[in-house]
Design goal:
- The structure holds two protein chains of two kinds.
- By secondary structure, chain A is α+β, with helices and mostly antiparallel strands.
- Chain A is about 30% helix and about 30% strand.
- In chain A, strands 2-3-1-4 form a four-stranded antiparallel β-sheet, covered by helices on one side.
- Chain A starts with a strand and ends in a 5-residue tail after the last strand.
- Chain B is α+β, with helices and mostly antiparallel strands.
- In chain B, strands 1, 2, 3, 4, 20, 21, 28, 29 and 30 form a nine-stranded antiparallel β-sheet that branches. In chain B, strands 5, 6, 13, 14, 15, 16, 17, 18 and 19 form a nine-stranded antiparallel β-sheet that branches. In chain B, strands 12-7-24-23 form a four-stranded mixed β-sheet.
- Classes of the chains: A alpha+beta, B alpha+beta.
- Chains A and B meet through helix 1 of A and helix 14 and helix 30 of B.
């Protein structure tokens, strides 16, 4: 099992949940209002006067086989609308109950 | 779930909610009555006290003064004026506006009951009379008649007045100029003398003969019959066969000493329409009834009534009160339609997308229609105020929607899904949208709190604007995102047609952005030059302010001119009629097709005629009404007509004085007048001052006419009896006087009854025996048993002048000079000229002059408006300071306000419009509108600063990015006002100054805001950067100092601890 942290501009929310469902990744946790900014490019998402937009974060734990297709789809989505901002990070799940 | 999220996620509910509002609004609209102005509650109470036999001075001392001093203690009194004339005292109480007139009436009644015991015994109980706007006639009908003239009163009363009075809402219908039928017994004094008869005796005989007397019942057989003597005349001619006396054993018939004339009243007002004799009918409405509705019903009924009248009787309409109203509402309707069109065009021009245009434009009807619900709920009406409010609002309601739409578009362009974009983009701008609406509310809400006449006008405007703006914000935060989520999508390539049309516009706008950014870049680096230039511009424009003319309410062309012309007192009706006919003919020839009806009335009115008795009338007074065709169909304005008429009358030496007014004073917007009140006890001195003042002010340019309120001493013939001689002949003064009265005025003998109507039978001397003074002197007086004596034997007839009625204001005698302002001139000019004359004049001791009338109202209102402006500025400042969490930024934004003022001054000066309550209202509205531009600009500038840009870069970027939204919202407001400023329809003069001042103020202030606000921002930012640096430097110095002396400080501390 791998965990994927997907952080993205709020505007993606519906599309990403749709994607997870389509990819058969049932389990995830979501933080609706998340602040953050990219390492290189992209506008900060602070929900402030200067940077009013906000991020949403989804932490999904998926089968290993699902990881690559999911990342590909997400990457495609990001390339299509680069200005919004979408990142995904994958790491191992050591144990679970 | 927030409002916008809910709206976007539940589009059907959102759409239906708004549809429900529209349905309810349209339903309310269908119920709304149309009226000229919002309901104005009256603020005047009159107290009439009759005291028969008392002269003006007696009345003043014994009735008026005690009443005045008691009533003066009523609460909310503004002025107490009074008129004491022979037999009657009229005290008029003017209250502050905005208080319940019923409560005030009760207060007055209590005060009156307190004083009633100290009034003279013979004085009647004071009568309270509430003056009401419903007293104003709403319709005047002209009646022309030829052979039906003698019976006209009856024909009109039965055939027209009664049916009209049955229309719901009609108060009274009075007939003027149609004399009532009367039967006169004209006696020959010589014949009376020959038969030893008197008028009184004849009168008594007629009264005895003209009777029906029931004689009880009689039983004949099994039946009971009632017994009657039917002596009433079946025909007036029967009277000639009455035996009035026996002389020398022979009967003397009435026809032997008198002739019986079945005719109309001897002295009555005569009415002429377009040169033909006839009558005039005046329709008054009940309080609270709707003028337009009543006039519509009357107009519908007239053709039907006309059918029932004799063929020579023609009814026409002189004045139709609803006409003005309907025309005004219609031209305002057109204004609204144009404003709507312009605003939609502007939105399309800037967005270039029809979908976006629809999303924005839909806010307009929604917000406007919703305001009808408010009107219906508060019993309001569609009137000048509520409709101009809609015109003003059109340009402003789209602002919020534009801001939301713009941000949603940005989000969509960044790649968001329209639905998500709508929610998040609205969320981002919601606070600033609400804040900008709050600034507008801060402007309009205080308007609901003004008092006085102005308050009555602006209360509705204030509430309506608040409601419309609130609705527009709610729409912008719910319906607009919903529509955006449904209708907007990422733009595909536009089709070719669109690109050919819109391409150049797009390019021009882009070039404008670049050009503007460059100018700002220059300006922020030359701050002192820009600031200096702005200050100079402000100073120059303000120097023009002194030249502006001021007036209270703009005067308006109401297609009607009324004139009251005074011939020398004691001119008889015949002579007045000749002059009137001459004038009427002259004016009818001159104005031809421009004139609809020319009606004039001459002679003294009957006491029964409510309308006429309220107006000045008399044998020497001519009342004239010229009804002109609608403004758009005529070549001459009513002001010109008035000026011409004044000139004509000035050329007729026979006319002593005249008053001509355009508009007829039936509503607001007639020509304004300046009143100069001359206070002083001595009649002669105040008269002299008034005459001197009037002769000088007449030469002032802009004074149409000037007249004094105090009547001239009236010439009269007094019969002075010698009481001793009377007593010797067995007479007393009352008997002798009644002999006189019966012969000259007539003795009421009895009533002649026909078809259920009663006509009086009057016995008096025949007219040919009432033409000379000797006729009075030769009247025979019969005492108790003794021989008859002639008037000349027991008294003499002398010519006297009765003192005028005494007018007082605020418990001082007063003589008022009224100066009517000629068309095209301003009240302020006349007032300042008047003030100068007063200063030059050498006023006698105890005489003072004050300025009142429209000028006083104007000053009060202007003062109110100034206070209001200060309150509004503070409120707007508070809203902005709260939004920006800063005191400097609102201060910078506030710099747009002075330039709005320069804009107003420049616009008014260029168009020659005077400063009046409407243009001031425009100025007050501008406070809210102009700061909006500043807010948009500053908001984005600080956003750029927060994003880390330098001050100069931030201002340039913000200026470039915000130019279009600022121009767009400004242009929607300006173009929304243009139809108002240019309109020439009926009533347009009323709101044109408002349009002119908003357009002028907004244009200048927007241009300068776009330039000055970035410059000031940079200047203040520079100061704060320098201050920051200084603080930082100090901190560094402190740190360095600490480092240097650290050991010492620590050592000191250890030493102190050791000591302890």
């Amino acid at each position: 099992m791998k965990s994927i942290l997907i952080t993205f501009d709020q505007a993606y929310t519906e599309r990403i949940i749709d994607l997870l469902t389509r990819m058969n990744c049932r389990g995830f946790s979501m933080v609706e209002q998340l602040m953050g900014r990219g390492s290189k490019t992209g506008e900060p998402h602070y929900g402030s006067h200067a940077w009013p937009s906000m991020c949403t974060g989804i932490l999904a734990v998926v089968e290993e086989s699902h990881v690559d297709p999911l990342l590909e789809e997400l990457h495609a989505m990001d390339l299509k609308t680069e200005k919004l901002g979408l990142r995904a990070f994958v790491w191992n799940i050591e144990k679970m109950i | 779930m927030s409002l916008y999220e809910g709206a976007v996620k539940r589009p059907i509910m959102t759409a239906l909610c708004f549809i429900a509002v529209v349905i309810f609004g349209l339903f309310s609209f269908s119920k709304l009555p149309i009226d000229q102005l919002p309901d104005i509650e009256s603020n005047t109470i009159m107290v009439f006290t009759y005291y028969s036999g008392a002269s003006a001075t007696d009345i003043e001392n014994n009735v008026t003064r005690p009443l005045e001093s008691t009533l003066n203690s009523c609460s909310y009194i503004k002025h107490v004026t009074s008129k004491s004339s022979e037999n009657v005292s009229v005290v008029t109480l003017e209250f502050e506006y905005g208080h319940n007139i019923d409560d005030l009436t009760n207060d007055v009644r209590d005060k009156l009951s307190m004083i009633s015991t100290s009034l003279p015994e013979d004085a009647g109980t004071p009568i309270i009379f509430k003056f009401d706007t419903s007293m104003m006639p709403i319709m005047m009908l002209s009646v022309q008649a030829d052979e039906s003239q003698p019976a006209l009163y009856k024909i009109l009363d039965e055939g027209v007045a009664n049916p009209l009075a049955r229309i719901p809402g009609v108060g009274t219908v009075s007939i003027a100029g149609a004399p009532e039928r009367e039967i006169y017994v004209y006696c020959d004094p010589q014949k009376l003398e020959a038969y030893n008869l008197t008028i009184e005796a004849i009168s008594a005989v007629i009264s005895q003969e003209n009777r029906n007397i029931p004689g009880g019942n009689i039983d004949i057989g099994n039946e009971t019959f009632s017994l009657r003597v039917e002596g009433e005349f079946k025909d007036p001619t029967e009277m000639s066969r009455i035996v009035v006396a026996s002389f020398g054993g022979k009967n003397v018939y009435l026809s032997d000493v008198a002739r019986i004339v079945d005719t109309t009243q001897e002295r009555a007002q005569e009415s002429y329409s377009n040169g033909r004799k006839g009558a005039m009918m005046i329709i008054q409405k009940q309080t609270g009834a709707n003028t337009v509705e009543i006039c519509r019903k009357v107009n519908a009924m007239l053709p039907q009534l006309q059918k029932g009248l004799p063929s020579d009787v023609n009814i026409g309409v002189i004045v139709d009160g609803s006409n003005d109203i309907i025309q005004t509402v219609k031209s305002l309707g057109e204004t609204i339609a144009y404003a709507l069109l312009f605003v939609i065009l502007v939105v399309y021009f800037f967005t270039g997308r029809w979908r976006a245009t629809i999303v924005v434009a839909i806010t307009i009807p929604l917000s406007l229609i919703a305001s009808f619900i408010y009107l219906a709920v508060t019993n309001g009406s569609l009137n000048i105020i509520s409709l101009s409010c809609l015109t003003i609002a059109i340009g402003m309601v789209v602002d919020d929607a534009i801001v939301v739409l713009e941000n949603v578009t940005t989000h969509i362009e960044r790649g968001s899904d329209p639905k998500q974009a709508a929610i998040h983009a609205t969320n981002e701008v919601a606070i600033s949208v609400i804040a900008s609406t709050l600034t507008i509310l801060a402007v309009f809400f205080p308007l609901t709190m003004i008092s006085g006449m102005t308050g009555v006008m602006f209360k509705q405007l204030g509430y309506m604007m608040c409601i419309i703006m609130t609705i527009s914000t709610v729409t912008a935060l719910s319906l607009t995102p919903m529509l955006c989520s449904r209708m907007l999508k990422l733009e595909k390539r536009q089709n070719k047609v669109h690109q050919t049309i819109y391409g150049p516009i797009q390019k021009a706008l882009d070039r404008l952005d670049v050009w503007y950014a460059k100018r700002i870049n220059w300006a922020v680096k030359h701050r002192k030059t820009v600031f200096g230039a702005c200050v100079v511009l402000f100073a120059v424009s303000m120097s023009q302010a002194g030249r502006l003319k001021t007036e209270f309410f703009p005067s308006d062309d109401q297609s009607r001119v009324t004139a009251t012309i005074y011939m020398p007192i004691s001119t008889n009706t015949e002579r007045s009629k000749v002059v009137a006919a001459e004038l009427a003919r002259k004016w009818m020839d001159r104005y031809g097709d421009d004139l609809k009806v020319c009606n004039y009335r001459v002679g003294s009115a009957d006491e029964n005629n409510t309308f006429a008795s309220m107006q000045t009338n008399g044998t020497y007074v001519i009342s004239m009404t010229l009804s002109l065709v609608d403004l758009k169909d005529r070549s001459i304005t009513s002001d010109q007509v008035v000026a011409d008429m004044r000139e004509d009358m000035n050329n007729i030496p026979e006319i002593e004085r005249f008053m001509v007014t355009a508009g007829g004073g039936m509503s607001m917007g007639s020509q304004s007048s300046a009143k100069f009140e001359i206070y002083g006890y001595d009649f002669d001195e105040t008269d002299r001052v008034a005459q001197e003042f009037i002769s000088r002010i007449r030469n002032v340019k802009g004074v149409g006419e000037a007249y004094v309120s105090r009547d001239k001493y009236q010439p009269e013939y007094h019969v002075e009896f010698d009481r001793e001689k009377l007593a010797q002949n067995g007479l007393n003064l009352t008997t002798a006087a009644s002999f006189l009265r019966n012969r000259m005025y007539g003795s009421m003998a009895s009533y002649y009854r026909e078809d259920g109507e009663e006509y009086s039978i009057k016995v008096k001397y025949a007219p040919e025996f009432r033409t000379e003074l000797s006729d009075i002197e030769n009247i025979l007086l019969y005492g108790n048993g003794a021989n008859a004596v002639r008037v000349k034997d027991v008294g003499r007839v002398v010519e006297e002048f009765t003192p005028p009625s005494i007018e007082r204001k605020d418990r001082q005698r007063i003589n008022t000079v009224t100066c009517v302002v000629a068309g095209g001139s301003a009240l302020s000019d006349v007032v300042s000229a008047g003030q100068k004359i007063i200063e030059d004049m050498d006023l006698p001791e105890g005489v003072s002059v004050q300025i009142a009338g429209d000028y006083e109202e104007q000053q009060d209102s202007f003062k109110d408006m100034a206070t209001l402006a200060i309150i509004i500025i503070l409120l707007v400042f508070i809203v902005m300071a709260a939004q920006f969490e800063s005191l400097t930024l609102p201060f910078i934004i506030m710099f747009s306000i002075p330039f709005a003022l320069s804009g107003i001054v420049i616009a008014l000066a260029l168009t020659g419009t005077s400063l009046n309550i409407m243009s001031l209202l425009g100025g007050i509205m501008l406070i809210g509108i102009v700061v909006k531009n500043g807010i948009v600009l500053i908001d984005y500038t600080i956003l750029c600063r927060e994003r880390g840009m330098s001050a100069i870069l931030a201002t340039t970027t913000a200026a470039r990015s915000r130019l279009r939204p600022v121009l767009m919202t400004t242009l929607t407001t300006i173009l929304g006002m243009i139809p108002m400023a240019l309109s020439h329809g009926q009533g347009a003069a009323m709101w044109r100054p408002l349009g002119v001042s908003v357009i002028g103020g907004l244009t200048i202030s927007t241009v300068l805001t776009l330039l000055l606000v970035p410059v000031l921002f940079c200047a203040f930012e520079g100061v704060s950067i320098r201050r920051g640096r200084k603080a930082h430097r100090k901190q560094l110095e402190l740190a360095a100092y600490w480092n240097e002396n650290k050991a010492e400080f620590l050592h000191d501390k250890t030493a102190r601890i050791d000591m302890n």
